[in-house]
Design goal:
By secondary structure, this protein is an alpha/beta fold. It contains 15 helices and 6 strands. Strands 3-2-1-4-5-6 form a 6-stranded mixed sheet, sandwiched between helices. The longest helix has 16 residues. One of its GO terms (molecular function) is ubiquitin-like modifier activating enzyme activity.
Length: 334
């Protein structure tokens, strides 16, 4: 058996160790293993989910051979759940697989508590009455539910869940928190120690690009009613001002300032999206609150006392995992 790091190398590059760990801890139930359900579960099994339970009461028929690649002629007349489960197990022997030979509609009616054991239920080709009942069951048990139905080349997918929070989002890129749109006092004093119009060409090309951006942003704000560049035209104009400040074509500091000018354009203050999270009623946590809301509650309470120790604590929180908030933690003190 290949080591997980090697076996799942490509997907680890996409969602990281925490995303893979979440997959490996998942327990997924599939209702009806026709072509839609089998294809869905096949992709999840290859991804390395923890365990699967296939529920289907039908037998493999001739018609299944033309639309489901997880059955073959030798399986005609056999329980479809058993055959599909066996093929899926062959795709990834690290996944625990079992099947239940029963019609999902009947299981929904007679044993609703059965579904509470799963992380996710994927229900395919169900009639509307069964979908309504299953939705109520899964919501009460706080189990994620996905409905899927296909009609030839058409179909639909619906997701039903009370709430979905992300603790580790693994963003594609990180915005360095240089606070260029609202520099802290020490950075302001540092920038004031430099003169952009210095006549010494050596000294001019050694002005830190952060200082260039801070001073140019300050000059822009003074002539634009305290506003920073916001429109496309204004951002272009700001970059032209940076370019005009160059006295020689080999000044890498000014080139870097132009490349990083977008860091000045970030809006000041707490974004509306973050404010909605901080004002959500779920921030009033109790013993049943998820880790996400406990961390948000801590963030909200700490944001009321913006001192150095608080900032260090929040940065530690971000390292521990509030991925959705991590990029915006600096907004609290702007």
């Amino acid at each position: 058996m290949a080591e997980p790091k090697v076996k799942y190398d490509r997907q680890l590059r996409i969602w990281g160790d925490q995303g893979q760990a979440a997959l490996e801890k998942s327990n997924i139930c599939l209702l009806n293993c026709g072509p839609t359900g089998s294809e869905t579960l096949k992709n999840l099994v290859l991804g390395g989910i923890g365990s699967i339970t296939v529920v289907d009461g039908s037998k493999v028929e001739v018609g299944d051979l033309g639309n489901n690649f997880l059955v073959d002629e030798a399986s005609l007349g056999e329980p479809k759940a058993k055959i599909v489960c066996s093929f899926l197990q062959e795709l990834n022997d690290a996944v625990k697989a079992k099947y239940i030979e029963e019609y999902p509609d009947k299981l929904i009616e007679t044993n609703p508590s059965f579904f509470s054991q799963f992380t996710l239920v994927v229900a395919t080709q169900l009639v509307e009455s069964s979908m309504v009942k299953l939705d109520k069951i899964c919501r009460e048990a706080n189990v994620i539910l996905i409905f899927a139905r296909s009609y030839g080349l058409a179909g639909f997918v619906r997701i039903s869940l009370k709430e979905h929070t992300v603790i580790e989002s693994k963003p594609e890129h990180f915005l360095d928190d240089l606070r260029l749109n609202n520099p802290w006092p020490e950075l302001k004093r540092f920038a004031e120690g430099f003169e952009l119009n210095v006549h010494d060409p050596v000294a001019h090309k050694h002005i830190p690009y952060v200082v260039i951006l801070v001073k140019m942003a300050d000059e822009w704000a003074k002539s634009h009613g305290g506003r920073l560049p916001s429109t496309r035209e204004e951002k272009k104009e700001f970059k032209e001002l940076l370019k005009a400040g160059m006295v020689a074509p080999d000044e890498d500091n000014y080139k870097e300032a132009m490349e990083s000018s977008f860091k000045v354009f970030a809006p000041r203050g707490i974004s509306s999206e973050l404010q909605l999270i901080l004002n959500d009623s779920s921030v009033e946590v109790d013993s049943s609150s998820s880790d996400f809301w406990v961390l948000v509650a801590a963030l909200k309470s700490l944001s009321a006392i913006p001192n150095q120790a608080t900032q260090v604590t929040l940065k530690r929180c971000s390292v521990l995992g509030v991925g959705v908030l991590r990029v915006q933690l600096n907004e609290i003190w702007t």
